Amino acid sequence: MSSNAVHHSGSALPAAPSVRRSGFSWWKALVTGAVGAVVVNLIVLAVAKLAGASLIVVDSGQEHPITVGGVISASVIPLVVGMGAALLLAQWKPVFLRIAQYVGGGLALLSVAGPLSSSADGGTVAALALMHLTLGVAVVAALQLHRRDR
Question: pTM here?
Answer without folding.
Answer: 0.81
